[in-house]
Design a protein that fits this description.
alpha/beta, 2 domains, 4-stranded antiparallel sheet, Rossmann fold, 26% strand, 9 helices, 6-stranded mixed sheet, 242 residues
Length: 242
C-alpha cells in the first residue's frame, strides 16, 4: 500500500517543554487513524507539523513522499491543497453565507472562477453532508451540528486526499456527535480519503477508527483496533475506556 504520511522520530520542544518526544506514524492510502491522548499531549501539534504550520526540531516527516521540512513555500502550498484540515471550531467565515464560504474555498485553494463549476461543486458537497437546503443561510443561522457539517463540506469541496480532524465532535451533544462520526465514516468510504482523527470522544473513536493509537507524554504507547485497545491491560490505555 502507498504511504501518504510517514513520521519517524519526530521531536518538538517549546522552550523547555517537550511536546513531541518520539513520534513514529505511517498512514497508508485510504486508512482512517484515530489518535487518543489527554489534553496537552501534542496531538494538535503533530497534525500542524504534518501540514508545515509548525516544523519539528528533529526527525523525518514525509507527506506524499516528500520531506515537509525541505519543501519550498510553493511546494508547501501545493501539498496543502491536497489536505483538508477540519479545525476544532469549524473556522467558518461568519460574515459570508454558506454559498460564499464554499465559493471562497474553491477560489482561494483551487483558483476556480467558473460560477457554474462552483455552484455544482457546492451543491454536491452540501448534499453529501445533508445540508442542501441551507446554501443561502448565514453560519449564525445554523445549529452546532449543522455548523460542523458545513465545515466538513467546506473541507470536502477541494477534494482532499487526506483529512486531518482536530476534535471534530467537541461541544456537540451525544446524538449529534454520533451523527457527525457516522458522516465522517460515510465520507471516508465515498471519497476514499485517508484520515487522522484527533479526539477525546470514544464514540467517535469506535465509529470512525480503523486503527486507534494512544499518545502519552509525547510518544505513542499503544495501537490496535478499538476492541483490541478496549481489552488492553495498560493502565493508561484503560483510562479511555472506563
Amino acid at each position: 500500500m502507498e504511504n501518504v504520511i510517514e513520521i519517524k522520530g519526530v521531536k518538538k520542544n517549546f522552550g523547555e517543554k517537550t511536546v513531541l518526544k518520539n513520534i513514529n506514524l505511517t498512514v497508508t492510502k485510504g486508512e482512517n487513524i484515530v489518535v487518543l491522548g489527554k489534553s496537552g499531549q501534542g496531538k494538535s501539534v503533530m497534525i500542524k507539523c504534518i501540514v508545515g504550520m509548525i516544523l519539528p526540531d528533529e526527525g523525518s516527516l514525509k507527506v506524499f513522499g516528500d520531506e515537509v521540512c525541505s519543501m519550498s513555500e510553493d511546494t508547501l502550498k501545493a501539498m496543502r491543497t491536497r489536505i483538508g484540515f477540519l479545525f476544532q471550531g469549524g473556522a467558518l467565515y461568519d460574515s459570508m453565507t454558506v454559498r460564499e464560504n464554499l465559493a471562497f474555498a474553491l477560489q482561494r485553494v483551487l483558483k476556480i472562477t467558473d460560477e457554474n463549476d462552483i455552484e455544482n461543486r457546492s451543491k454536491e458537497v452540501l448534499e453529501a453532508v445533508g445540508l442542501s437546503e441551507v446554501i443561502d443561510k448565514m453560519p449564525s443561522d445554523l445549529s452546532g451540528g449543522m455548523r460542523k457539517r458545513m465545515a466538513l463540506a467546506r473541507t470536502l469541496i477541494v477534494k482532499p486526499e487526506v483529512i486531518l480532524y482536530d476534535e471534530p465532535t467537541t461541544g456537540l451533544d451525544t446524538i449529534t456527535s454520533k451523527e457527525i462520526s457516522q458522516l465522517m465514516l460515510e465520507i471516508h468510504e465515498k471519497y476514499k480519503t485517508s484520515s487522522i482523527i484527533i479526539t477525546h470522544d470514544m464514540q467517535c473513536a469506535r465509529i470512525t477508527g480503523g486503527r486507534v493509537m494512544v499518545l502519552n507524554e509525547g510518544e505513542f504507547i499503544a495501537e490496535g483496533t478499538y476492541t483490541e485497545l478496549e481489552n488492553c491491560n495498560d493502565e493508561f490505555v484503560k483510562l479511555f475506556f472506563k
